[in-house]
UniProtKB/TrEMBL annotation:
Record has Zinc-finger as a keyword: no
Keywords: Leucine-rich repeat, Repeat
Protein name listed in UniProt: Disease resistance R13L4/SHOC-2-like LRR domain-containing protein
A GO-annotated cellular component: cytoplasm
Species this chain originates from: Pythium oligandrum (Mycoparasitic fungus)
Pfam families, per database record: LRR_1, LRR_14, LRR_4
Compositionally biased intervals (Acidic residues): 633-645
Region of interest: Disordered: 630-682
Length: 726
């Protein structure tokens, strides 16, 4: 102590940090620092350790990682009995001293990135050890005492030469994290009977099969299972009993199929199966993402016993089979009831009396094959003025008859989980109907069009929500464009392949559209929906997402997962809807605006539907769109131009499309009529050419639309000219 120092002003040295230097050695005098409890000497050039270091019995933390220690360390390590954490990573050690078993207080041992060929035989005496990282060594086996590490929670042994784990893991009941990747393991390890094992990594080994008994020991806790780059050819069916599983990586194995039970794991959101010869599953399903694969697997079988599944995840085919079983079991009772009377039993009359009083009639799950005669507008209960809400779900109805149209006060009609194939068009005349829910039926596109095509339909001015999920739609029903008052449209779980040509701009009040779980390859011009606020198109086959969605002024929620698209990166999607919308907008040129929509008649599918189900003309009654940028100085002149130009354009294209779909026997006509058609077409061609010549004020999209229309007219003129010459 120097002369100017005072003993009472000095404190004991407790921590030493000399890391990230170039210290080649340590003096033996370090043993005099008896009060030191923490030493950090990582990132130096130490090749050996002085014996004095092992006299520091107060040490609880010692970090010697990233040095050049080699050979065998001194047995003096056993004297550091209070040591809780020891770091020897990234050295050149080949063995550890047996005396390390004396470190009874040791909790963390880091010995990765060395050249260790074995672990000390007495390592099992480290009863408090909870973290052991020994990856990137040359370990070929584990000592027998390893099974005594019952406090071990984290075990990282990846990048070694282990070929078997024998039974060393089966007793590690506290184990939460196990990493055995990049070894030579050929036999599935015997996992502990543990309620704690959360993550297991066994990739890059030589596993040919999974021990079902072993894997199911962690069924109540495991959330991550990684088995990539092995030799697995079959998964046990009961792997789906891992009901907490969130991530399953099976890439680069020899799997030809997956067990159906995986489809019912409601927490599973990351399923990696690339690099397998999965011939039993379509490529389009595989490329559509985790949810699409799960949905497909559910169609092939039921959930394993004991797995909690959501009701909506149960395969519809199985639901159908269950319904058929119930129908068969109750067939005698139903037949007797039908033969005795078309009415319901007297004991149910109180249900109708209560409905007349409350305004709500619930006939759910009554095994009905037809509508009871009491459910009519002119019956004893005066339902035409008293009934507001009717629920006929979970029955066996195949059609909704004209009888329903007499319930003129009806505001909501729910007929879910039936077998509906047709809906009588008269029901579309209900003047107050706001909610129509027809989920889980067998309605086709034509059936919906036929229902809505009623010329006396009033749904266009009153309907607020239409639910057609889980039906048999293959195209967008063209008649939906008549529902000008509709706010919510639900079309998920159908077979729709494209939205091209549908006039979304005519649905002036729709704010919520859900069309997920279809077969969509195109979203068409859905961004022209004026009030669109929420859009869901998850689990489809979309390869592109229109950037114009970023220009929708009211859009606040967009859901697009599980599509093979590359327009929006996964990192952007993970940040949420607002980030996606901004990303799409930024991909467009600066100051971009939505151009007025093209006609639905440019879609051949829509033209065919309209030829079968003509649409009432009510364009004048539709709300005017205010989402497109004006190109003239006077807003009124723009509106007049829309009425004078856009509507005639629609009618012109309509006439051409209707001409194209006429049958050969309908195309005949006198030459005078053909000459008149030629003159009309020539006038239209001249008008379009004049518009194209005067390109000022025309956007690129508008010019493209005009050119396309001009090409159609020229083709039509050639056909008409041929008729005249013939």
């Amino acid at each position: 102590m120097d002369k100017d120092e005072k003993k009472w002003e000095c404190v004991d040295l407790v921590k030493i940090d000399l890391s990230h230097n170039a210290i080649p050695s340590i003096s033996d005098e370090i043993g005099a620092l008896a009060t030191v409890s923490s030493i950090k000497l990582c990132q130096n050039t130490l090749t050996s350790l002085p014996e004095g270091l092992f006299e520091l019995t107060a040490l609880t933390y010692l970090d010697l990682s990233h040095n050049q220690l080699q050979g065998k360390l001194s047995e003096g390590f056993g004297a550091l009995v209070n040591l809780k954490e020891l770091g020897l990573a990234a050295n050149k050690l080949q063995t550890l001293p047996d005396a390390i078993g004396n470190l009874s207080s040791l909790e963390v041992l880091r010995i990765e990135e060395n050249a260790l060929i074995q672990l000390p035989a007495r390592i099992g005496q480290l009863r408090r050890l909870h973290t052991l990282t020994a990856h990137t060594n040359q370990l070929a086996a584990l000592p027998t005492s390893f099974s005594e590490l019952r406090s071990l929670q984290t075990l990282d042994l990846r990048k070694n030469r282990l070929d078997t784990m024998s039974g060393q893991l089966s007793t590690l009941q506290s184990l939460k994290f196990l990493d055995l990747r990049q070894n030579k393991i050929v036999v599935f390890p015997n996992l502990p009977q543990s309620a704690a094992l959360d993550q297991v990594f066994l990739g890059y080994n030589a596993l040919a099969q999974i021990d079902e008994d072993s894997i199911l020991r962690a069924k109540d806790s495991m959330t991550v299972l990684e088995l990539r780059d092995n030799k697995l050819s079959l998964l046990p069916a009961n792997i789906a009993c891992l009901y907490r599983l969130k991530t399953l990586d099976l890439s680069n194995n020899d799997l030809s199929d997956l067990p159906p039970g995986l489809g019912y794991l409601k927490h599973l959101n990351h399923l990696v199966i690339d690099g397998n010869p999965l011939r039993a599953i379509r490529r389009s399903v595989l490329s559509a993402g985790c949810e699409a694969v799960k949905k497909y697997l559910r169609t092939r079988g039921g959930p394993p016993s004991g797995v909690d599944v959501l009701e909506e995840e149960i395969d519809e085919l199985q639901v159908q089979r269950e319904r058929e079983r119930l129908v068969k079991a109750a067939s005698s009772a139903i037949g007797t009831r039908a033969a005795a009377s078309a009415s319901t039993p007297v004991r149910n009359q109180h249900v109708y009396r209560e409905a007349a009083s409350s305004g709500t009639l619930d006939l759910t799950d009554q095994v009905l094959q037809s509508i009871p005669r009491e459910v009519s507008g002119d019956g004893a209960h005066n339902f035409s003025s008293t009934l507001l809400h009717l629920n006929l779900s979970k029955n066996h109805l195949t059609r909704l008859p004209e009888q329903i149209s007499g319930l003129v006060s009806l505001m909501s009609l729910t007929v879910e989980e039936n077998q509906l194939q047709t809906v009588d068009p008269s029901i579309a005349t209900l003047p107050r109907l706001q909610l129509l829910r027809l989920r889980k039926n067998q309605l086709t596109t034509n059936a919906v069009n036929e229902f809505l095509a009623n010329e006396e339909s009033s749904l266009g001015s009153c309907i607020k929500e239409l639910d057609l999920r889980n039906n048999q739609l293959t195209q967008m029903p063209s008649q939906l464009r008549q529902l000008a008052s509709m706010e919510t449209l639900l079309l998920s779980f159908n077979k729709i392949e494209s939205l091209d040509g549908f006039p979304w701009h005519e649905l002036g009040k729709v704010s919520v559209v859900s069309i997920s779980d279809n077969r969509l390859k195109s979203l068409g011009q859905i961004y022209h929906t004026p009030m669109l606020a929420s859009l869901s198109f998850e689990n489809n086959n979309l390869t592109q997402v229109p950037c114009e969605l970023g220009l929708c002024p009211h859009l606040r929620a967009i859901y697009m997962n599980a599509n093979p698209q590359k327009t929006v990166r996964g990192g952007v999607m993970a940040k949420g809807s607002l980030e996606i919308i901004m990303y799409l907008k930024n991909k467009l040129p600066i100051n971009s605006v939505l151009t007025p929509p093209t006609s639905w008649k440019e879609s051949k599918a829509m033209a065919v539907q309209d030829a079968i189900f003509p649409v009432k003309s009510n364009i004048k009654n539709r709300p005017k769109l205010n989402m497109y940028a004006a190109t003239a100085d006077d807003p009124e002149s723009v509106e007049e131009e829309d009425e004078a130009e856009v509507v005639p354009t629609l009618s012109r294209i309509s006439s051409h499309r209707q001409h194209e779909i006429r049958s050969p026997q309908d195309t005949g006509g006198d030459s005078k009529g053909s000459s008149t058609d030629l003159a009309t077409i020539d006038g239209q061609i001249a008008s379009l050419e004049q518009q194209l010549d005067n390109q000022s004020g025309l956007s690129a999209a508008k010019r493209y639309a005009l050119k396309k229309e001009l090409a159609l007219l020229r083709s039509s003129r050639i056909r008409e000219a041929r008729k005249v010459t013939a």
